[in-house]
Every structure is written in C-alpha cells, then in structure tokens.
C-alpha cells in the first residue's frame, strides 16, 4: 500500500514505474473517476521521454506512443466506454502486447483479459490523497520495490 498525497505524488509514482517497465508488460489501473489513473499514466509516459502532457485516451480508447517520442512503444488504453468485453478484439491489443507496454485504465470492463498485469488500484484516503494498492504478479515480483 502506498499513500499518494496529491496529484504531483501520483505522477511521481507513475514516473518511478518507468525504471521497472519493459515491452510486453501490462499495467492495469483501477479506481473511480478522478482517482489518478491518468496521472499515473502521464507520469510514466513523461519519464519514458514524452514531451508535453499525454491526453486522456477516453474518446480514442487507444492512444499509441512510439520511439523516438518515448523509449519503448506504449499503448495507453481507456476502456471506460467499452460496454461489452467482446469489443476488445476490435482494438487489436493482442498483436501489440509483445512489443509494447500497455497501460490500461478501467480494466474491469474486460475481466480476465490481462491475468498477468500489474494491477494498481487507487482509492480515496481520509486526508484527501489517494491510497494505491498493488496486486503484483509473478513476472513483476523481482522488479517490484516492496
């Protein structure tokens, strides 16, 4: 469990993930609206080299980033508007998974789709910050800091 005091701390946590990720990884970001899922993604993308602020992929659903803008291919995915898990096949994520890092917001819209993802969940803290909990799969255990 990690306490994130504010948006800056949330982005900084995302940036710290840049030292741990590799192509083929999936990071699943869960939490209610406004909890900081996109802030984690923005911090990670910035630390991977993206200049400027990454837009939320809410309407595009999949926002790709490729070198040289970032040091590895990244697909930032927002499943908020996915109503049926069957729609996942249309996104073409299976083909990209081996070569890219996937950052997936709202993974609960496609239950069971990424069983080996690093699952990060954000919830409100009593002080107004956020509490981040992590479900760390086997493939991440040697890399995970705690």
UniProtKB/TrEMBL annotation:
Pfam families: TsaE. Its main location: cytoplasm. It comes from the Bacteria. Signal peptide: none annotated. It comes from Sphingomonas insulae. It is found in: Cytoplasm. Keywords: ATP-binding, Cytoplasm, Magnesium, Metal-binding, Nucleotide-binding, tRNA processing. This is tRNA threonylcarbamoyladenosine biosynthesis protein TsaE. Coiled coil: none annotated. Belongs to the TsaE family.
């Amino acid at each position: 469990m990690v306490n994130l005091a504010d948006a800056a701390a949330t982005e900084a946590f995302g940036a710290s993930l840049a030292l741990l990720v590799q192509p083929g990884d999936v990071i699943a970001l869960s939490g209610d609206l406004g909890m900081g899922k996109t802030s984690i993604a923005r911090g990670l993308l910035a630390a991977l080299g993206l200049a400027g602020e990454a837009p939320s992929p809410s309407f595009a659903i999949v926002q790709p980033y490729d070198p040289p803008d970032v040091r590895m291919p990244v697909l930032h995915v927002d499943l908020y508007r996915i109503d049926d898990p069957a729609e996942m096949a249309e996104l073409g994520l299976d083909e990209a998974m081996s070569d890219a890092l996937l950052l997936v917001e709202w993974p609960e819209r496609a239950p069971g789709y990424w069983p080996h993802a690093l699952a990060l969940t954000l919830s409100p803290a009593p002080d107004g910050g956020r509490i981040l909990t992590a479900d760390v799969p086997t493939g991440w255990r040697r890399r995970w800091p705690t």
